[in-house]
Amino acid sequence: MKGFSRANLMYMRAFAEAWADEKIVQQAVGHLPWGHNLVLLSKLKTTELRLAYAQRAVENGWSRNVLNIQIEARLLEREGKGVSNFTERLPSPGSDLAQQALKDPYMLDFLSIGQEAGEREIEAALVQHISRFLLELGAGFAYVGRQVPIEVGGDDFFIDLLFYHLKLHCYVVIELKAGAFRPEHAGQLGFYLTAIDAQLKSKEDASTIGLLLCKTKNRIVAEYALRDSNRPIGIAEYQLVESLPRELQTNLPTIEQIESELGRYGGEGG
Question: Which backbone phi and psi does 192 adopt, to 5 degrees?
């Protein structure tokens, strides 16, 4: 054989050295295209992480670009890190799957808005980039709506973001807080979960799960807030980009832009 570039030969040697003691065909790396393996070799330093990301790429059918995005965002290193009461409030094995789906922090830097962004601005930007947000949330999430109205006792309430998880078979309510976590936030989210279970949940659905995304949190305060809650709630931080000059900040999308984006991705799951 001939015609190989110097770079390709070097990658082939690196590949052979990386998997010298492994049965490649039986590993996930043996089921990935060469381009994917180049990403694993160049972006990750340990065999454990390479195998973990390779397995996830095979399971979820990630393209080379998506694999690269997830490695750079340290997806696997952030999974299962949020504070929750899932173990106490959800039956196994659903509790394990829910905890694994909970990241901390959530990386929302793709929104291109500064750290000073408010809750409504973040919501609008997430809807504008719904396909990228679904990728960050992880496999199984399907978008339902933003500012979803619910009526309780004649009073109107609005849920920030509502999703459905196809693997957990339940609704997921996501509430955004532009500041630090406070104990009363968990009470408000628990109220929304009760309302969704009463008004939207079918008998085939599992209990609705809540995810509270806040700018910062005191982990001990969060654990105390969830200790006596009877609703399954997870709490995690989110990270935006650093503050941008005003002339470079992303403008809020118009209603027409949001409707256009939802028309393109409304039926897409993560």
Answer: -65, -40
For residue 157, list its beta bridge partners.
150
221 three-class SS: helix
pLDDT at 5 (0 to 100): 67
Could you tell me which of 129, 221, 235 has the C-alpha nearest to residue 177?
235
d(CA 252, CA 59): 36
Q: Helix, strand, or coil here: 151?
A: strand
| CB distance 204 to 169 below 8 Å | yes
Using alpha carbons only, what angle is made at residue 217 by residues 215 and 219, rounded to the nearest 5 degrees?
155
Cβ(87)–Cβ(218) below 8 Å = no
Tokens of 8: 């390709």
Least confident segment among 7-21, 27-41, 109-123, 252-266: 252-266
Kindly tell me the burial class for residue 3, based on how many C-beta atoms sit within 10 Å of its own C-beta (0-12, 13-18, 19 or more): exposed
* pTM (predicted TM-score): 0.76
Q: Which amino acid is at 163?
A: F
User: Which pLDDT does position 114 carry in this prediction?
Assistant: 80
Residues 62, 42 contacting (CB under 8 angstroms): no
